[in-house]
Specification:
There is one protein chain. The chain has a domain of about 30 residues. It has one helix and no strands. It is elongated, with a radius of gyration of 17 Å.
Length: about 60
Protein backbone atom coordinates (compact mmCIF):
# COMPACT_ATOMS: atom_id res chain seq x y z
CA UNK A 1 0.00 0.00 0.00
CA UNK A 2 1.38 3.44 -0.92
CA UNK A 3 1.00 6.72 0.89
CA UNK A 4 -1.69 9.03 -0.44
CA UNK A 5 -0.36 12.06 -2.27
CA UNK A 6 -1.83 15.54 -2.28
CA UNK A 7 -3.31 14.81 -5.72
CA UNK A 8 -5.24 11.87 -4.22
CA UNK A 9 -7.11 14.09 -1.75
CA UNK A 10 -10.81 14.66 -2.46
CA UNK A 11 -11.63 18.06 -3.90
CA UNK A 12 -14.62 18.47 -1.58
CA UNK A 13 -12.39 18.32 1.52
CA UNK A 14 -9.54 20.77 0.94
CA UNK A 15 -6.80 21.24 3.52
CA UNK A 16 -7.65 24.18 5.82
CA UNK A 17 -5.73 27.37 5.22
CA UNK A 18 -4.37 29.47 8.07
CA UNK A 19 -5.82 32.91 8.73
CA UNK A 20 -3.88 35.91 7.51
CA UNK A 21 -1.84 37.49 10.30
CA UNK A 22 -2.90 41.11 10.68
CA UNK A 23 -0.31 43.81 10.10
CA UNK A 24 0.46 46.25 12.90
CA UNK A 25 -1.13 48.92 10.72
CA UNK A 26 -4.43 46.97 10.82
CA UNK A 27 -4.75 47.74 14.54
CA UNK A 28 -6.29 51.06 15.54
CA UNK A 29 -4.35 51.09 18.86
CA UNK A 30 -7.39 52.34 20.78
CA UNK A 31 -7.86 49.32 23.03
CA UNK A 32 -10.78 47.79 21.13
CA UNK A 33 -12.35 44.71 22.60
CA UNK A 34 -11.98 42.46 20.81
CA UNK A 35 -8.81 43.66 19.14
CA UNK A 36 -8.05 42.48 15.62
CA UNK A 37 -5.21 40.45 17.14
CA UNK A 38 -7.66 38.75 19.54
CA UNK A 39 -9.80 37.86 16.53
CA UNK A 40 -6.72 36.50 14.77
CA UNK A 41 -5.82 34.37 17.81
CA UNK A 42 -9.36 32.93 17.84
CA UNK A 43 -9.19 32.22 14.10
CA UNK A 44 -5.77 30.60 14.50
CA UNK A 45 -7.09 28.30 17.23
CA UNK A 46 -10.01 27.28 14.98
CA UNK A 47 -7.52 26.69 12.15
CA UNK A 48 -5.37 24.35 14.27
CA UNK A 49 -8.48 22.41 15.35
CA UNK A 50 -9.67 22.16 11.74
CA UNK A 51 -6.21 21.10 10.55
CA UNK A 52 -6.01 18.37 13.22
CA UNK A 53 -9.43 17.07 12.15
CA UNK A 54 -8.51 17.23 8.45
CA UNK A 55 -5.23 15.37 9.03
CA UNK A 56 -7.11 12.66 10.99
CA UNK A 57 -9.51 12.21 8.06
CA UNK A 58 -6.63 11.92 5.58
CA UNK A 59 -4.36 9.50 7.39
CA UNK A 60 -3.49 6.55 5.16
Amino acid sequence: MTKASVQDQPLDDPRPTPPRHPDLADCCHSGCSPCIFDLYDDALERYWDALDAWEARHRP
